[in-house]
Structures are given as C-alpha cells and as structure tokens.
Amino acid sequence: MKTAYLDAFSGLSGDMLVGALLDAGIEFKNLEAALVSLPLKGARLSCRRKTVSGIAAMKFDVEVTEPQPERHLSQILAMIEESSLGAAAKRRARAIFEVLADAEAKVHHTTPEHVHFHEVGAVDSIMDVVGTAWALEELGIGELLVSPLPMGTGFARSQHGIIPVPAPATAELLAGFTVRMGDGPAEMVTPTGAAVLRALGRSAQMPLSFEIGKIGYGAGTRDYDDRPNVLRIIIGQERGALDTDELLEISANIDDLNPQIYDHVMERLFAAGARDVTLTPTIMKKGRPAITIAVLAAAAHRDALAKVLFAETSTIGVRFHPVARLKLRREIREVDTRWGRIKVKFSEGDGAVTATPEYDDCRRVANANSVPLKTVMEETHAAALASLDRHEHEHHAHGHHHH
User: pTM above the 0.70 mark?
Assistant: First the structure.
C-alpha cells in the first residue's frame, strides 16, 4: 500500500479531498458509478477544473435536487452496506461515520445512535465520505499523513445556531493532531474532513522523509486573500527507517488464580484492544510464586483493559506506565505458493527487509493439504524473498517503487 501526505495549508473538507483524489488519477465516471450504487436519491455529482493562483485543481460538487430526510447513523451504515463498494472501502467509510457520530454525540451530550446528522448526514457529506473511502482504496493508499492543520477564526452558522470555529465536533475529532489555532480567515477544517483524518490518518512528524509519486490538487469553494484554497495530496512512500509509537504497559501481579483461567483472560484482553499480552512467572513476598500479567496497548484502551483485569482476576490494583516503541515498518502482502496465496508480513527498516509468513494462514494450508507446518512456512518464506527480488529488479528497470 502507498502512503498519502495531505498538505492542508488551506485546511480540509470532504469535497477538497475527493477533488484531490480525482486529480491524482481517479476517473470521475468510475467514482460516479461507485456512488450511484448507494440507495440515495436526489444527488447530482459533477467535477470541473478550477484554477486557483494559477494551479489547475479539481472541484468536486454534489448538488442536492430533492429534500432529504434526517438520517441516523444506523441508516447511513445500512446504505454503505447496500452499495457496490468493496469490503475494505466499506470498512473505511463506516469507520469515518462512526467517529463522526461519537464526536457529535459527545458535543450534544447524547449517544451515537441518537445523533441526527443534519449537517453531516446531508447528502454531500455522505458522497464525500464514501467517495473518499472508495478512491483511497482504488489508488492503493494505506496510510494518510497530514500536515499541521490551520484551525481558522470567527464563527460559523449551524443547525444549532452560531458556533465558534473550529466547530465543536471538529475540535473533538482533532484531539491528538497538530493544529495551528487562529490560523486562517474562516472555518478551515470541516467536521467531515476532520472525521476522515480521525478514522484513517495521523499527524506527520516533521521533517518528513518522503518519496514523491503522484500529486493531486483539490479545490475548495471559498476564495481566500492570504492563501490558495486548495488541498494538495502527495502519494508516495514514507522513507523513515523506523516507526515509533507511544503505548501503555498495564500490569498486575496475581498469586491465587486457577491457572486454567489465564487463557480466557488473554482472549478477553485482546478483544478489548490489547496489542500484546505476556505472562511471566515471578516470586512475591513470603516466597510466594505468582504470575505477572503485562498488557501492551494504546492509551485509549486503558480503562477497558483494566476492567477486564479486575473482573477476571483476583487483582485489586493494576500498574501502568507509558512505553515508547521503535518498530520496523510493516506491511502484509499475499505471496503465491503451490498451495495458493498465503499472507506474509514484510518488515522494512534501514534497507533490510524481513519476511514473516502469517502463522494462521500457514497452519490452515498445512492442515488442508496434510503438509508439515514447517514445510509450508519455509516454502512461503522462500517465495516471499523471491517476490522481493522481483520487486527490486522492476524497481531498477522502471526507476520507481512498487512497494
């Protein structure tokens, strides 16, 4: 999968995103065919070239031709389900609407199910979100990185009356992103744009080492005096040697639990968002043998994981501390073997690439074909390395990356 960098010096909205993706190589008629498959009447789609400060950008428009009902999250998710989008694009579109509903619910003090999407369930938002999800999949973009975001100034008009800029839902959605308060003459980032970032993106660490492939420009509606109102999308490959992430380690010491229970506890911890769970034998006071259960997870899952530990084990206190990881960049690809296609995890860092066949896939193939597991793993590993060599040759032949 490729990475896309969103250069959002003029902010970000759904129509700018779709425009930029169209400019980066999506055919409008294919996008239209995907969106027409939504069970939704009264929307006319169009796109045109718009020159902004001499830059030829794409302007994507959704014209609503008949009155629309207020929609709830469940209705929007059902519409996505009914469309002709592929499973991965559906998953992305669903994720965007789910984070949007969460943010709106928090702002209005209600539940995600009860949020009326007046502004957001508007037809143009649905088209922007679903169009973005479909186009990202179509262009093979896995990860979205975004520049610092201008948060704008002033006030905006909404269904609920006059609201400050950034809109409350936008502010909620951009927690954790790098933003510039007070930058920009109007509302620069819309809730729809913020929801796409929340669901699929992260702030780029500056300076960013990036190998540029394609570039697209999407035009916004307004014109500003101090900057061109376009979104630049740069599609390529991030070229950092190592990825970093910030996680928590949550741990508890347990000395009186039936050992049969640990398997169940681990399963529940993974279901609640654990990235990794380890059990370590240890000795506590008075020479008592015990088990330390340690869970690695994103901070957002801390309370859910603590709840599982309190419910399922005898512990009365859990410890946690932040841990920073350096890790190789990973990507899962399928490799052809004599038993069909098998998933392999490729990790790359500092020029070295390791290939690790996915255990569950290999085990399934081994059982289905009555072949020893180690044979399947060894052959898949060899096939994966061969596929890497082919990539390298193509790379030198064409002078660009296929990774």
Answer: no
